[in-house]
Amino acid sequence: MKKFTLFQAVSAILLLAGCSSPDMQTCDTGREFSVARTPPSPVAMKAKRMRLTEDSVTNAAFASGNFNAPAGRKMAFTANITVNVADVKKAIADTRKQTAAAGGYVKTLNNNMLVLAIPIAQGDNFLNLLAKMGEVSNLRIEGDDVTEQSADLKIRMENLEKSRKRLLAMMDRTGNVRDLTQVERELNRVTTELERLQAADKNLTNRIAYVTITVVFRTHTPAQATPRANVPLLWINQLGEGLQQWISANQGKVKVPFRVELPAKFFFAGGEYAVSGNNCSIHFREIKNAVTDIRWYGKKYAGKEFYKDMIAKALQIRFGKKVTGSDCKIDGKDAVWFQVETNIYGIDYLYLIAVAVDDDTVKVIEAKGKKQELLKDMGIDGWKKMLEAIRF
Fold it and tell me: With 60 as the cut, is the pLDDT of residue 343 above it?
């Protein structure tokens, strides 16, 4: 009988590790084997790359069934969604709570973006929760068919495990130091490769069990047609517009057109704006007064009563809410101030405006912010105190 050296035996084991599967077509050493399988059906091939783009972001996009794999196939799903919200910080905090409640976890948190792993069974429900936080401007869902990849990994791991057991048995039989060293070297290589494939298989199993959802939150105020009062002065029609667009403070030289003592929690942010740490803002501006005679001269300018009803009507139409007002004096001039509340994405906002008539100019002071924050940073008493201290 022909005798085999230990080296030949090891080579035979490694050869078997590469071609022990009955499905194998080739078993050349030095090359990865391929496995012959029945080609997937046209239905499965069609489902291999499933996408839902922003062109089809409708209510149907949030129905059930977005993460269902075809029968007999293994799918790894990913979803990308952009949601416009009023408060990004709150949306992120709520999303993290909902992620934990769904049995998922946060993989990445970067400013206004989160990458989440959500159990596949909870995927549709989670998208529904995200959609309720604001307005969805983009949604994309993809499914990768990983059936073959999963099967290949398992076959390769089985073959490597068989090789590892044979090498362990060989170590017990050999007494030659040189041969033992060679077996140990091969055993280390096989073990390392097996552990690498096991890690890849674990990662793939996790991808199948969890849908990876990338969420981007963007600050947004409702896109809506702004109703306007039918009044002759454009600036009155525009009152309150900044509340829905919010403040973008300009850094630069302060240009407030009159002297004012700010509430303690506010500071000038450039231009005609003052802001608080809670992002509440106060806007100071001066506008040319309307004239009451086309051939005007002297002091034929409009008075407080000319503006009072128009401003109240404009605010009522814009916000659709009750408007309260009060006459007052600012630096000895006739003035009036108004208060109105509104709700955007479930958050209460407060808007205050005071108008004082000073001959050829109208002084306008606006304050806006989340109701709770504005009342905390200034309050109605602080608002009145600021108006009383203004000097033209």
Answer: yes
